Amino acid sequence: MSAEKHHDAEIDPVTGYETTGHDWNGIRELNTPFPRIVIWALALTFLYSVIAWVLLPAWPIGRDYTRGVLGLDQRQVAMQGFAALEKARDDWMAGFAAGDLDALAADPALMARAMPAARRLFADNCAACHGTRATGGPGFPDLTDADWLWGGSPAAIVETLRVGINSGHPDTRVSQMPAFGRDGLLPREVVQAVADYVLALPGGAAGQHHAGAQAFAENCVACHGETGSGGLGTGAPALAGGRWIYGGDRATVLATIHGGRQGVMPSWADRLSAAEINLLAVYVSRLGANGQRAEAP
């Protein structure tokens, strides 16, 4: 019967192939042979997989895996790459371990080699909070302006990086703004008057006769300065320059005075070497030089 069926099979007049007898809306299926190139591709793929299983790490065995005949270890390869990178940087990085940072920053040739590495170091460790261009965001200071909470010299930045702010380091810098409203230190109407006074500082409209002037002098001057210019090395930001850490709209300023603020920066002493901290400090100190913004890494 099969031979007779084969003999009676319909032949496609265009291609010369037999049809399968299947018909889809006038389209007949051809009984064509499987492409040899696909067969060879499958065979080569299978052969490659067998060779790879033998030569390379491949099969998991509980908590371990087969190492393969070649004994390749990607972790070891990566560590060797890091070691080579560190060795290549040793000649210029050594100067940052205990050198004069001002003198190092004044060396154009050294800065040309060091700043690309510093930019990558910043991107890996600092950009998550301060942004890739170091311009900060809600709750995180802009590092490209002239307003510094603890000082903008390389030495001051080194100390801030080393001990952190409100961190777990025993020598951490400590700063906290009281919750004047929540804790009942000031009544609601006074909190609102101080907020309006603070908002008037950038435009110079906050005079001594302002409704919030007296409350500001009694409660805020010790940290933010008489004119709200900050820069006293107490962690209190400037209020008169129009740059805000948490936001400069009335609702945010009210929330800040009412509920207080306590920013946190980790200590990097156990995460980065002394040379890396010094390199970062020089980099950060140069971000706002001549009004230039940090370059994206």
Automatic annotation (TrEMBL):
Localization (cell): Cell inner membrane
GO-annotated biological processes: proton transmembrane transport
SUPFAM superfamilies: Cytochrome c
GO MF term set: electron transfer activity; heme binding; iron ion binding; oxidoreductase activity
Pathway assigned in UniProt: Energy metabolism; oxidative phosphorylation
Gene Ontology CC annotation, any one: plasma membrane
Binding site for heme c 2: M177, C220, C223, H224
Details of cofactor binding: Binds 2 heme C groups per subunit.
Binding site for heme c 1: C126, C129, H130, M265
Domain Cytochrome c: start-end pairs: 113-202, 207-288
Keyword Lipoprotein listed: no
Description of how the protein assembles with itself and partners: Component of the cbb3-type cytochrome c oxidase.
Function: C-type cytochrome. Part of the cbb3-type cytochrome c oxidase complex.
Similarity comment text for this entry: Belongs to the CcoP / FixP family.
Protein name as annotated: Cbb3-type cytochrome c oxidase subunit
Gene: ccoP
